[in-house]
Every structure is written in structure tokens, then in C-alpha cells.
């Protein structure tokens, strides 16, 4: 083994650069032997490109610049394209219109205007595409409806379902005679309670005699699908876990393979999928247990589930049909890629996009950690230890710990090769990715721990997990940092305001003022905080009590705020006001804004700059030498310069 140099944790030189996350695979579709997917490309300013892989293995782009295959329905989009043997249709982010690909040339099939479209489904029998349309209603929030768009674009979209606050997941039965869909109403979020509906389609393709077959205000239904012989399947958490169910011919919901695992995910985006039918009696599916995703096959006849061996620890976009199965898989041996089942039913990689690969000697693979929290629950987390083949820490020194709070808050930490984690572990940081109370993947009761207690349970869980790791000797208890994205950014800021464990924090487009968000949030999240905090304005006192902005006088630790200047979910004003409040009070603080970025960073230069800026910030506040040059950041109230590379 080569000799390793001794250097302070955080100052290790690493071959893993600050470059972005590489190409991401967002949505996947399977049609007639062809695979279709969208790629987010940081090098193209985050543009999302529609790609096709033909059965002979050829891969080519379908959507030319400047088309960006995304949607802003619910602001988070999803389900931005549909592909079949006769047509390919996609949503273009720039103008919100739907386009049909004819001979490689996109042609609009919806009229210009302010409407947005998502959750696309081809109805080739009727030469139309079914989808969710969101458009201004003239008063209050936008109107969300299920519509049918003619593929020729010669007629205006026809409304099929309207009335509920939200609709999603249109699904046609194999013979095209029936339609299933989901709906929900405020203040529910789709992981709180949804309704599953079915209806017959008349001769004109309009639903008639709609009836609710599952769901309710306290039951979350996810991804309805029709089996090849016309039985309706769906995922429900009615028994405490998002499990697979089917509707019997008599209308009774029957569990397919009950287990303490989750086959569902929070519908932050539309067009999500965790299972599909390989044939009449076979389902390809993915489920998560203890935060790790697994691939499996279900025999519908005897309701037995069998594992499908794979190297993947995170699985999404599961698609299947006519004996074929495909999905997006991610592990620790490379970037997320497209995989499909071979003729023996084994997963094989068919496309790996350009992106960071596992670097021998610098790879940190996590350990599952559980820690006791204040309410008696067990907190789930992934611990990544420092890993560098060329460096070791000084004897007796323990590494700084970077605690990560995911977004949502009904999201989850994803265990796979993440350049955002490996960048830090290869420089001498330990990283703790926390699935705090409210996270998905651990059953409904775990999600419900956050009800009415956002800013309390999540903060306590992150602090408890950090203390647990430090007490075990895995990290320096005096050098605990916390960072988070979106809702996780709020958790990070709240931890700085209401706890004393953390020496510094970083927020990426995080909330600082809950009351301001409640007053101005977009429709999808307009009443989200009622479940997380309390009714507004009746409990406005709670909103102020838990807002980092209104408790800035309690923040003593240095903080750095990263913010997209075109963010439509968390306005840049939230970060600016908190920064000014901290600066005026003499707290070391930095604000880094990014032109052209919204809620979630996509551009190569943004991702690189954000990593370098945080490294510089950490080197200053934790006082270790910079391992390499990093563009300096202006940190108010911290005038003295730190180390050099």
C-alpha cells in the first residue's frame, strides 16, 4: 500500500474536481423495442434533451436546441413526454406548448398561451394525447384539468376531468375503453391523501360514470396501472406502507404482496413509476427498505415476490411491457444509467451517460446508521467516511462532519455515487445524509412524525444523528456543519437558530420566512405548511416562531446562502433578507446568487461554483488550508484571510 501523507481533514488534495454532477436521466419510456429518455445536461445550461435508443443500440437526440423537454406544472413538472409507435410528443419549457416530432422537426399541437402540460399519455386509438393541463383561471390559483389534445393539433384541447384542485396519472385500459386517474384537494399533498377514479369512455372518448375506487383524505394512492387483462393495480399506504394492491372484479382492493417496505414515492413530480407489467402474470418493480432500493419480480398468480439481483442502490422510472423491462439504476460504480432486462431476466446496462465515475481509492460507500431521537423514534441516516488513497488525518484528530438535510421535506436521502458527497469525503470530511422524521421510504407513521412539527422534529433528528456519530468517534463534535436544499435548507437554517450543535451551516434556496411562503406560495404548495406547521393565519405565531428570519438574533454560527435568482418556489428575497439580518448583527455570513437558475441548480458553472464557494467558506470558518485554489467568497464579518492551497 502506498504511503499516505498526513494532513488536516478538509485539506486533502483530491482528483475529484468541483465540476458538476454530469448528465442526469430524468424520465424513461419503453415502446416497441425502443427506449426513450430525457437527459439533463449541465454543459448545455441544464437543458433537458429527449433521446432514443433503437433496438440495434444506436442512441441519438430527438429534440434539437433550443427545445427544453420539461414542464412547470406544479412548478416541479414531470411526465414531459410520451412515446409510442405512431408519435412522440413532448412539452417545451420555453413556451409551455406541446410539440409532436415529425421527421425530427418539432411541430406545436397546442395553441400559444400560458397553459402548461405534463403527465403525458398517448391514446393512439383516438389519435390524441391525454395529459394534465395547468392554466390561469382568472382568479386565485391556476386551474388543473385532465385534457385530451389532438395529435394533429387541428382542434383545441378537450377537457375530460375538472373540478378537483389537482389531477394526475391518466391511465387507459388495454382495450382503451376505460380510464383511471388520481385527484386530490387542498390542503392535502399527494402523499397525504388522494382519490383513485375510474370511468368508462364513450364513443367520443369522454369519461362517463366516474366512480371512486380507492383513496381518501388519509390514504395516499400512487401510480394506477392496468394489467394486460384489464385489472386495475395501484400503490396505497392504507396499511401504513406504500404497497401494491389490485382491484378485484368485485371492486375490492386486495394486497398483492404486503410487506414493510415502500413501492411508492412522494409525487413531487408527475410521471413517476416504480412498477410495470412484463406480462399477464408478471410485474417488474422496485421498492425501498431502510432507505435502499431493490429490484424485484412479482408473480401475480401466487402473489410471490422474488428479488432480482442488481448492483443498484437507487432505482427509478421502472417501465415494462410485452416481456420487456427497463429502469434507471444508480449504484456506487458509476453515474445513474439506463438498464433493461436481458433474455434471462437479468438487468444489463444499455446506456451510461457521461459523468463522474467511481475513482479507485477515493470512493466512500455509506454505512446505514440509526440513532435515537428526542421523541423516542429511531432516526435513519447514511454515514460516508473520509476516503483518500493519498492522505490520512493527523493522529488523534477526527474529521469534520457535514450533515445533509434533503429537500421535501417529504423526500429521502439517496444512497448512490453522488459527486456532491464524494467531493467532500475525498477532501477529508465525513458526510451524514439524514432521513429525518417526515422522510419517505420508512412508512406513513415515519412521514407523519413531522405533522405540525416542521422545524422541530427534523432539526432534532439531524442534531441527534450528528451527536450519535460524534459520540461514536466518527467525527469531531466541535466541527459539525449542516446544509440542506429547499426544505432541507430551511432545516439547516432552523438548526442554526434553535440548536447549538452546529459550527456552521449552508442553505441552498432554503426557506427563511415561513409566513411569507404561506402567503405567496404557488398553488401546489399553497397550503402545504398547514400540515407541517399549522393553519394559517390562525397560527401565524407558530410560523414566526419557527422562521429563521424572525429568529436571526439566535443565529451565532457562520452561514452561507446559495440562491437561484429566478427561483419561483422560494423567492430570492428570502435569502437576501436573512443575509442582511445576519450581516447587520455581526454574524459571519455570505450570499451567493446565480443568474438564470431557479429552484434547483442545473448549470455546469453553477454546480462548480457552489462547491468551490462552500469549500472556501468551510476553510475559513473551520480554519484549515485550502486543498486547491477556489474562487473566494465575500464573507461579511470575517475579514481575516484563511489558509492557502
Describe the structure.
The chain is of the alpha+beta class. It has 2 domains: 27-272, Neuraminidase (6 Propeller); 361-622, Rossmann fold. The strands form 9 sheets. It has an 8-stranded mixed β-sheet, with helices on both faces. Strands 2-3-4-5 form a 4-stranded antiparallel β-sheet, with no helix packed on it. Strands 6-7-8-9 form a 4-stranded antiparallel β-sheet, with no helix packed on it. It is globular and about 75 Å long. Pfam families: PD40, Peptidase_S9. GO terms for molecular function: serine-type peptidase activity. This is Peptidase S9, prolyl oligopeptidase active site region.
List the helices and strands and how they pair.
Layout: E1 5-6, E2 24-31, E3 34-41, E4 47-53, E5 59-61, E6 81-83, E7 88-91, E8 98-102, E9 105-108, E10 116-123, E11 128-135, E12 143-150, E13 158-161, E14 166-172, E15 178-184, E16 195-201, E17 207-215, E18 221-226, E19 232-236, E20 243-247, E21 253-255, E22 275-279, E23 282-289, E24 292-299, E25 304-307, E26 314-321, E27 324-330, E28 337-341, E29 347-351, E30 367-372, E31 378-384, E32 391-392, E33 401-405, H1 419-425, E34 430-435, H2 444-448, H3 457-471, E35 480-485, H4 487-498, E36 504-508, H5 514-520, H6 528-532, H7 540-545, E37 559-564, H8 572-584, E38 589-594, H9 604-622
Parallel strand pairs: 1-32, 33-34, 33-35, 35-36, 36-37, 37-38
Antiparallel strand pairs: 2-3, 3-4, 4-5, 6-7, 7-8, 8-9, 10-11, 11-12, 12-13, 14-15, 15-16, 16-17, 18-19, 19-20, 20-21, 22-23, 23-24, 24-25, 26-27, 27-28, 28-29, 30-31, 31-34
Overall mean confidence score, pLDDT: 95
Shape: globular
Largest sheet: 8 strands, mixed
How many beta strands in the DSSP annotation?
Answer: 38
Overall domain count: 2
Over the alpha carbons, how many angstroms does the gyration radius reach? 24 Å
Q: Please, what is the CATH homologous superfamily of the largest domain?
A: Alpha/Beta hydrolase fold, catalytic domain
- Briefly, what CATH class of the largest domain? Alpha Beta
> What is the fold named in CATH at topology level of the largest domain?
Rossmann fold
Unreliable spans are: none
Main β-sheet, spatial strand arrangement: 30-31-34-33-35-36-37-38
Helix share of residues? Answer: 10-25%
Organism: Rubrobacter xylanophilus (strain DSM 9941 / JCM 11954 / NBRC 16129 / PRD-1)
Protein name: Peptidase S9, prolyl oligopeptidase active site region
GO molecular function: serine-type peptidase activity
InterPro entries: 6-blade_b-propeller_TolB-like (IPR011042), AB_hydrolase_fold (IPR029058), Peptidase_S9_cat (IPR001375), WD40 (IPR011659), Xaa-Pro_dipeptidyl-ppase/CocE (IPR050585)
Amino acid at each position: 500500500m502506498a504511503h499516505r501523507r498526513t494532513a488536516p481533514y478538509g485539506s486533502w488534495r483530491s482528483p475529484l474536481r468541483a465540476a458538476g454532477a454530469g448528465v442526469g436521466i430524468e424520465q424513461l419510456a419503453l415502446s416497441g423495442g425502443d427506449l426513450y429518455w430525457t437527459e439533463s445536461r449541465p454543459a448545455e445550461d441544464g437543458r433537458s434533451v429527449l433521446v432514443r435508443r433503437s433496438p440495434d443500440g444506436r442512441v441519438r437526440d430527438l429534440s434539437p436546441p433550443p427545445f427544453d423537454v420539461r414542464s412547470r406544472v406544479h412548478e416541479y413538472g414531470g411526465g414531459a413526454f410520451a412515446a409510442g409507435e405512431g408519435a412522440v410528443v413532448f412539452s417545451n419549457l420555453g413556451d409551455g406548448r406541446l410539440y409532436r416530432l415529425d421527421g425530427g422537426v418539432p411541430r406545436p399541437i397546442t395553441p400559444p398561451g400560458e397553459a402548461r402540460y405534463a403527465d403525458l399519455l398517448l391514446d393512439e386509438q383516438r389519435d390524441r394525447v391525454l395529459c394534465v393541463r395547468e392554466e390561469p383561471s382568472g382568479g386565485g390559483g391556476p386551474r388543473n384539468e385532465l385534457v385530451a389534445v389532438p395529435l394533429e393539433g387541428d382542434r383545441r384541447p378537450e377537457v375530460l376531468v375538472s373540478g378537483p384542485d389537482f389531477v394526475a396519472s391518466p391511465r387507459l385500459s388495454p382495450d382503451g375503453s376505460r380510464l383511471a386517474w388520481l385527484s386530490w384537494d387542498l390542503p392535502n399533498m399527494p402523499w397525504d391523501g388522494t382519490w383513485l377514479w375510474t370511468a368508462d369512455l364513450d364513443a367520443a372518448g369522454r369519461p362517463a360514470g366516474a366512480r371512486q375506487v380507492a383513496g381518501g383524505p388519509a390514504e395516499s394512492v400512487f401510480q394506477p396501472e392496468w394489467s394486460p387483462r384489464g385489472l386495475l393495480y395501484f400503490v396505497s399506504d392504507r396499511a401504513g406502507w406504500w404497497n401494491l394492491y389490485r382491484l378485484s372484479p368485485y371492486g375490492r382492493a386486495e394486497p398483492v404482496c404486503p410487506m414493510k417496505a415502500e413501492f411508492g414515492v412522494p409525487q413531487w413530480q408527475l410521471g413517476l413509476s416504480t412498477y410495470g407489467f412484463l406480462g399477464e402474470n408478471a410485474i417488474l418493480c422496485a421498492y425501498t427498505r431502510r432507505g435502499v432500493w431493490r429490484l424485484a419480480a412479482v408473480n401475480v398468480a401466487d402473489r410471490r415476490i422474488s428479488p432480482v439481483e442488481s448492483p443498484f442502490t437507487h432505482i427509478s422510472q421502472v417501465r415494462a411491457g410485452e416481456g420487456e423491462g427497463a429502469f434507471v439504476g444508480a449504484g456506487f460504480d458509476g453515474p445513474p444509467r439506463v438498464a433493461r432486462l436481458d433474455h434471462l431476466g437479468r438487468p444489463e446496462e444499455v446506456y451510461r451517460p457521461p459523468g463522474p465515475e467511481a475513482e479507485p481509492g477515493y470512493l466512500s460507500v455509506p454505512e446505514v446508521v440509526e440513532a435515537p431521537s428526542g421523541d423516542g423514534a429511531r432516526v435513519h441516516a447514511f454515514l460516508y467516511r473520509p476516503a483518500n488513497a493519498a492522505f490520512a488525518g493527523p493522529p488523534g484528530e477526527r474529521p469534520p462532519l457535514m450533515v445533509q438535510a434533503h429537500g421535501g421535506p417529504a423526500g429521502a436521502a439517496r444512497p448512490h455515487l453522488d459527486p456532491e458527497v464524494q467531493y467532500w469525503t475525498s477532501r477529508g470530511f465525513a458526510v451524514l445524509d439524514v432521513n429525518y422524521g417526515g422522510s419517505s421510504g420508512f412508512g406513513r407513521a415515519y412521514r407523519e412524525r413531522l405533522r405540525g412539527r416542521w422545524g422541530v422534529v427534523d432539526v432534532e433528528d439531524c442534531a441527534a444523528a450528528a451527536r450519535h456519530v460524534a459520540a461514536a468517534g466518527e467525527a469531531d463534535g466541535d466541527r459539525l456543519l449542516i446544509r440542506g436544499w429547499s426544505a432541507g435548507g430551511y432545516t439547516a437554517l432552523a438548526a442554526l437558530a434553535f440548536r447549538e450543535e452546529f459550527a456552521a451551516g449552508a442553505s441552498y434556496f432554503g426557506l427563511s420566512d415561513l409566513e411569507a411562503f404561506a402567503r405567496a406560495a404557488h398553488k401546489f404548495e399553497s397550503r402545504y405548511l398547514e400540515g407541517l406547521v399549522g393553519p394559517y393565519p390562525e397560527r401565524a405565531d407558530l410560523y414566526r416562531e419557527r422562521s429563521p428570519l424572525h429568529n436571526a438574533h439566535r443565529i451565532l454560527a457562520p452561514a452561507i446562502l446559495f440562491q437561484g435568482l429566478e427561483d419561483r418556489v422560494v423567492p430570492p428575497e428570502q435569502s437576501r433578507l436573512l443575509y442582511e439580518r445576519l450581516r447587520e448583527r455581526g454574524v459571519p455570513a455570505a450570499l451567493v446568487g446565480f443568474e438564470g437558475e431557479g429552484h434547483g441548480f442545473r448549470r455546469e458553472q453553477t454546480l462548480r461554483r457552489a462547491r468551490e464557494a462552500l469549500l472556501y467558506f468551510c476553510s475559513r470558518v473551520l480554519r484549515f488550508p485550502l486543498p486547491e485554489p477556489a474562487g473566494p467568497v465575500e464573507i461579511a464579518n470575517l475579514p481575516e484571510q484563511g489558509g492557502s492551497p
